[in-house]
Amino acid sequence: MSVNALEKALWQIYQRPSEAERYNADPAAFAREYRLDAGEQEDLVSLDVMGMQRRGANPLLVMMVYQTVKGVQCLPQYFGIVNQ
Amino acid sequence: MAEIVGGFMMPHVPSIPTGGYGESPEQKALSDSAFETIARRLAELEADTIIIVGDDHYENFGPHCIPSCLIVTGDIDLSAHAQTLGMQGGPIPNNEALAKHILETGYREGIDWAFAKSLDVDHSVGIPYHMAVKRNPQMNIVPIYLNCVVEPFIPSRRACELGRSIGRAVASFSGNERVVVFGTGGISHWVGGPGMGHVNEEFDRRVLAMVEQGDIDGLVALEDDKVLAEAGNGALEIKNWICALAALPRSTAELIAYEPIPHWVTGCGFVELKVAA
Q1: In B71-134, where does DSSP find H-type helix?
Q2: Who's near A61: CB < 8 A, 6+ residues apart?
Q3: C-alpha to C-alpha distance for A64 and B15, rounded to whole angstroms
Q4: Rounded to 5 degrees, what are φ and ψ at A46?
Q5: Do A58 and B192 make contact, defined as CB atoms within 8 angstroms?
Q6: How confident is the model at residue B276 (pLDDT cuts 50, 70, 90)?
Q7: A55 touches chain B (CB under 8 A)
Q8: From its phi and psi, is residue B207 left (phi > 0), alpha (psi between -120 and 50) or beta?
């Protein structure tokens, strides 16, 4: 129920390839393993980058997770999202 | 006795080694040339140890542990992520004796350094090493990390105090090392959040002018909230610059190059600090 748990989940996706695989396979199941409230879970499952940042998640970490999940080629898309 | 013979400020943005992020050929050439200048000056200064002040990008240090300041006293290699940026991994030589002396000097002076007996350094140390130091293969490094990335950030005043302590440690080291200090990162950039891709050239030139004037007090007085608002979260890396600047004895500064490169999401500033005679 805090940004700490959200960042914990994000960092696992960013730094542990096996966790990124698990997230990609079933984001909802992955999110349920962390002490997140419903809104936080929803943002993590949908990879709502601005939603997570509004909750206080570190922007750099959010960006790296987006890149990990979507691929580095999707960075221009990320630019577009955060600058809307 | 060991002595600090120079210092340099430089960016460490991940696009530096390879380019290809939409920058113009002239911008890539300017960056490459600035690093070549630094590499050449290291040789001219007959430096043998480079203290590189960087900041971990939520890579080695995660929510489980975020040191405010950390020194690497042992084995150094390049992180897996840094190796995706066009740099080859492998052992990086550390001046372990000097690193340990900086750590112990800090302890005596009231600085509670965290330390790493081994670390795979991220791009904030890896890029300056790869682009400038590695071209002089006989040189060792000492990596230092300040937390400029995860709130609450290291206070700029503390970054300055760390730099002063590093300076005293080098001056009291029994070896004959000729030491250069790098402050890396910055200048303005918004990383991961709204504003990403914007560069505040006016802020960058203001910071560069303060460095050229040796105005450490002015840099320390820049409040984090105002830096965040004016120049983005990445601009807090000027704390690394403050630390490096404070480590040097009285010095003058000379701008090597400055270029705002929006495709690299960064204002890239390169400065040489010359120890005053």
Answers
A1: 96-108, 123-128
A2: A7, A10, A11, A14, B58, B192
A3: 15
A4: -90, 0
A5: yes
A6: confident
A7: no
A8: alpha
Task: Report how far residue B111's alpha carbon sits from residue A39's, in angstroms, rounded to the nearest whole number.
Answer: 41
Give the nearest chain B residue to A63 (CA atoms): B192
The conformation of residue B130, written as its DSSP 8-state character, comes to I
Average pLDDT, chain B: 97
Beta carbons of B244 and B53 less than 8 angstroms apart = yes
Query: For A26, left (φ over 0), alpha (ψ -120 to 50), or beta?
Result: beta
Nearest-CB residue to A4 (from B57, B63, B191): B63
Instruction: Work out whether strand B49-54 and strand B140-146 pair parallel, antiparallel, or are unpaired.
Output: parallel
Rounded mean pLDDT of B176-200? 97
Q: What is the per-residue pLDDT for B250?
A: 85
pTM: 0.97
Determine the 3-state secondary structure of B274 from DSSP: strand
* B120 contacts on A by Cβ (under 8 Å): none
Question: Given pLDDT bands bounded at 50, 70 and 90, which one contains residue A1?
Answer: low
E strand map for B150-226: 178-184
The C-alpha atoms of residue A45 and residue A37 are separated, in whole angstroms, by 12
Chain B: residue whose CA lies nearest to A15? B59
Q: How far apart are the first and last CA of chain A?
A: 28
Given a contact cutoff of 8 angstroms between Cβ atoms, the answer to whether B125 and B141 are in contact is yes
Q: How, if at all, do strands B178-184 and B3-10 pair?
A: parallel
> How many CA atoms within 13 Å lie on the side-chain side of B188?
26
pLDDT of residue B258: 98
Residues B50-72: tens digit of each pLDDT: 999 999 999 999 999 999 999 99
Mean pLDDT of B182-205: 97
